[in-house]
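To whoever is covering the structure queue this week,

Two jobs came back overnight. Logging them here so there's a record in the thread.

Job A:
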Amino acid sequence: MKHHFITVEGNIGAGKTTLTHLLAKHYNARIILEEFADNPFLSKFYENPQQYAFPVELFFMAERYKQLKEMIHTKDLFQSITVSDYLFTKCLLFAKVTLPDEEFRLYQKLFDIIHQQLTFPDILIYLHAPIKKLQENIKKRNREYEQNISNEYLFDLQETYTSYIKQHNIKTIFIDASNADFLGNPKHLQVVIDALEGDIENGQHYFTLP
């Protein structure tokens, strides 16, 4: 396996954590998961986005930085592969959608200082699902504070993610996750594994699930 640091990304409800768990199990890899439940501002943000956007994004950035920094300093002799369910740049992408211009400029300055100290993944797996599917998944997992997320917010995040990936020509396995069932359908997971183990160059490579 030539990729030692794999990141799974996608919109809210795209299935990132499920796929991350399955890949970590398949490769006996170290796993890094977003600790969103620890963010004391998250439920308040969904109730009052204008008031809580800055602290919610700042808290996420600090926690993600801490997690990824520890990963760099604690090389695991027995697990040469790491799989994460978030990209550190996610901080900036969400902040771009949630923060007003002046706050975003301040946030970006902090982000620019911090992200230089972290390792970028070797490859990104991006799960792209239509808004209707995302909302179905959000309802299904039934986190109370997520139940009123608007289609418009999900659409803005989707646009921000895809334009960032294309603009920076990141090495990306772009999965159409419209009908994704990684837990129930082994063929879906196999598509991702085959893509990871194939010859992927820089840029976006698009895959559909059977």
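Job B:
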Amino acid sequence: MKKFQVALDLFTAQAALDVLDEVGEYVDVIELGTPLVIAEGASFVSHVKEKYPDKIVFADIKIIDGGNVVPRVVFDAGADMVSVLAVGDDSTVRGAIECAREYGKLVLVDMCSVPDIARRGMEVDKMAPDYVCVHVGYDIQDTGVDPIEELRKLQGVQSAKAIAGGIQLSNFAEAVNSPADLIIVGGGLYNQKNMREIAQKMHEIIHPVSVMN
């Protein structure tokens, strides 16, 4: 089933809650972005999960070390999913996945800055993560790298796939029709004045596909 995720790469709890007031009903996954978790801490994870108990709450903490230790902080706070960086050591990725299994939670392996996505994707796939995510990072989104094209490099990966970086209404349908199982939208929502309308349109695009899948 394809899912729609909002990535809240914001800096205050209030800014994040304001966005969720507008778009929360239309999304399946609420991502508390890296700057937001750094700024507000694990207690905000608990607050969002209490406010949106039926949503998957994803703490994008981008684990690079301590794979079996670091996720516990946000899992204990109520997070349903965490991210671990694929550029990290295999033991770190495996540790995060093992920790998630212990808690009955999810792990997204983020391919940001991986030089050989196809090779690393196949290596990570053997570890059986919940998602492998092609991610065009914020700092390179103005270089013209297309996340939908990058996703093609994971064609041999059997794990569920996620796509992030530069997704907005204009290419949302293309992303939904790609092999991605999780479509992640950040600034394409929260930087728009009519974010509620855009979120509703995105939901209308993905919902029929989700039902079919």
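Note for Job B: The chain has ten helices and eight strands.

Please reply-all if you pick these up so we don't duplicate work.
Q.
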